[in-house]
Amino acid sequence: MATRDRTLTPRAVRSLIAEGHSIVIFEDSVLKLDSWLEKHPGGQLAIKHMIGRDATDEIKVNHSAATLKTMKAFRIGRKLAGPWTNMTPPIRGGVFVKEKDEEEDYPPSSASDTDTDLDTADDSISLASDRSSLTSSTSLTADSVSHLRQRRLPIHFHDAELPAEGKDEAHGNVYAMSAAEYTEFAVQQNVEESRIDYPSLDAVVQQDIVRRYRALHQRVEDEGLYDCPYVEYGKEMIRYTALFAAFMGTLYYGWYMTSAVFLGFFWQQIMFTAHDAGHRAITHNFVVDTLIGIFIADFCCGLSIGWWKSSHNVHHLVTNAPDHDPDIQNTPLFAIAPQFFRNIVSSYYGGFVFYWDAFADFMIPIQKYTYYPIMAVARFNLYMLSWLHVLSKRSSGLGTAKWIRPTEIAFMTIYWYFFGYLLLWCSLPDWKSRVAFVLVSHIATFPLHVQITLSHWGMSTSDLGESESFPQRQLRTTMDVDCPKWLDFFHGGLQFQAVHHLFPRMPRHNLRKAQVLVREFCRDTNIPYSILGFVDGNRYVLSHLDQISDQVRILINCQKHMAKTGESGLH
After folding, report:
1. Which end of the chain is more exposed for a tag (fewer CB within 10 A), N or C?
2. pTM of the entire structure?
3. CA 501 to CA 471: how far, in whole Å?
């Protein structure tokens, strides 16, 4: 029997992973991606987060049909018939031990890797209880948000003067917890809430969700929702040109602050198209869309599209995972989950530790007040992250896309020549005007940063295990923002984040149409579809930040009380 047709058992796959191989399941095939790991234009982490897992859905929604055809080059065998039981990838803490060799189970470790040159591919192999009693309503509304809040954390801090042991009236249990125990309690309670609010993790239930999702995906393709409406991008270009012309015109006449506002609006609007390009949603060609993204992000805005893609690929695969999703790793400025109360070791940043320190003790309790001010100046942080990326090994190790790094460095340098030298230094009369222009133009982009956080920061961060299906995890960790159609230009497609996470390559102008299909899917599967208006969504996120702050205040007071008495003061 040919090696590629050999059936590999889970035991065989575990042994291969224990030897250090990158094994991923795609449809009925077992793929060995060792030789592609270094070449992957989307970075190694996207593959590493899929090791030992059935990544069929993650691969299909992130790749064109042409790229999917290349998967057979890496096939080393077939999986056993039936659903695959996902393993925890090593990067997420999975431990694999090589088991006794069984020749009929898997090829010998000396078998050479499939080393097919895929440089011509137009895309990259980029990876990120019974419900019968549920009501038919599966949308998250303001009322249901309040209901969820009332259920959380029935444990409260009492003033230090009160006894260190007490009774929870609702449960009749005596509590006296350390800060670490309280953190674990909060984490586990969030897990239990997610288990209650979302479909069972039973294999039969999750397989039914997968089956329905794949039918939905096929319907999306059949209805042409992946086809790019180029006319809409023509309209976008008119708006971008008008904003840039307004910026130049007001600058010429010396209306510097008005000019700064128009420049900020230009940056905010044009980055929506860079987002589409980063997902290959415009031409569906990796090289062309990457060049579009580099021109917009690096040349027009001074931001690295390579950095964005590197982090965003991971974000889409492990959405809202505190240890792995870089989009929510913001301590000591923000914490959106109790997991951050302990030090977080980031897999994305190569083991960098986000320490919980005295500065976090000060900042997190006031985070609902600092949220908007920090979002207003968040663009400065993106500049730093962009340059750190293009100068790092992460950027230089893009395999078949090594040309991206020098192109980004050149375009970002040109941006700073135009913005820093020709605009700020040569066109503005004094330092007061220069500083004010920089602040106003950058603050004008803050709605974009609010939109980016709005759909995730109030959603679940719980790890429900490897048995949870791709569509359920995306809908559990992502919220849509409701708005009238005429306001779509302002939100730029980011208001359809739940839909976007299910179909990341879909052009944003088609997301509203797909939203109707996703609502039907949620009703059929009993997965809550979370959607709030923009104002309610902001209130929801602020409320969530405040709730986390309350928990931090409990921990701080607990630590103070323990320092004085040796007892926690938690009841």
Report:
1. N
2. 0.85
3. 9
